[in-house]
Amino acid sequence: MPPGTSSQVLSAFNEGSKLLAAGKNAEAAEKYELVTKALPNVALAHLNYGVALAKLGKSQAAVVELKKAEKLDPKHPLVLLNLGQTYQMLGQNSDALTCYGNYLKFYPAGAYAAQVKVMQHSIQAQQALTHGKSSIGQDNYLEEALAPGSGKWQKTPVAVFIADGSGTAGYKSEYRDILKEAFAEWAASTESRIAFKYVDKPSDAVIICKWTANPKDLINPLEGGQAYVLRDISGKIVKVDMCILTVNTRSTAAFSRSYLKHVCLHEVGHSLGLVGHSSQPDDVMFSAVNYEAANGKLSERDKKTISLLYPIPATPVVNKRPLEPLKGVNPSFFTDPFPQRGSGLFDKGTDLNVKSAEPKADPAEAPGPPIIPNSNSRLRPDPTEAPGPPMQ
């Protein structure tokens, strides 16, 4: 701790850490703002302030604080991780790749190296599929959404089965209604050119939706859900298995309605054929979402894109790429992979004396034609890091 730091500043820092852990991000940001003014040359103060701002959805302001932390400690692992992820939240993928590259350069066997590689790959894969083109500034992102391969439902209404989540930890009766709202909002965006009907038995459905409280049921539990899309050789979607997580693996706080709605909208979007991701952060189909800042609403670009996929009159979507098994295409995420005592989206420092040393990590089929899988891969494990003691 810097010599001469007052007990009041020290107390504010420790209170901020507790508030972040409790999901009280606005209050935490107020504490850290005071700390950064008192300790302008302490990287950890700016790091935690940046984390609090990022969790509030104030990504631009978060970048300012995280860059201050990077200037003071350019090799701090959590600075590189959180700055990279904040850039990715903003769609500034080149800057994000720089941060991820630096992390792997300094910590090739670091605790988060595997997760960083997945995030790095998610950007690079999308760039490769879209040939580096971005839909930012356009009124839709159809080309990005179909980059991994085109597919759509050919007959409507599409039969949907939603399993009863009663008895599943964390499940609330309103979750079923929220999922139905997600289907309805996508359908409305096509002026009902795609429609859904709900059936009582999974054997009668082609979209099967289930709930789970076990993060291990998902490839990446930090995604909050997953949709596994099967299509035939012509590009017709034939079946979707969707699973939504009912427990919060990122925070001690309960799910917000808007967050769960966002998860449902994103996964339903995949189930309709939007198998790729948008490069615009305001879109539901963007490859990342801030857990605390999710608004649970379709953007105008989301609506325009789905209306183009299901146009008037219904016409086949031309597949510009040969259909082939898609393995691990475009892994996406909803939260960052550094939960700590329920800190949520971004990880925070725990001790003003933290150095840049990084602990080493523990060592962490596609069916053939005519059915071709498109799995929205969730590849990252769910790491946890024990918090350090309160500052003395």
Describe what this molecule looks like in 3D.
The chain is of the alpha/beta class and 392 residues long. Helices cover 37% and strands 9% of the residues. The protein has 11 helices and 6 strands. Helix 5 (77-89) runs antiparallel to helix 6.
Name a few traits of the molecule.
392 residues; alpha/beta; Serine Threonine Protein Phosphatase 5, Tetratricopeptide repeat; Collagenase (Catalytic Domain); 37% helix; globular
Given helix and strand content, the structural type is alpha/beta
Gyration radius, rounded: 22 Å
Through-space gap between termini: 8 Å
CATH class designation of the largest domain: Alpha Beta
Question: Per CATH, which architecture of the largest domain?
Answer: 3-Layer(aba) Sandwich
What would the average pLDDT be, to the nearest integer?
79
Number of helices: 11
Low-confidence stretches: 321-347, 350-392
Biggest sheet, spatial arrangement of strands: 2-1-3-5-4-6
Shape: globular
- Profile the largest sheet: 6 strands, mixed
CATH fold description of the largest domain: Collagenase (Catalytic Domain)
Tell me the number of structural domains: 2
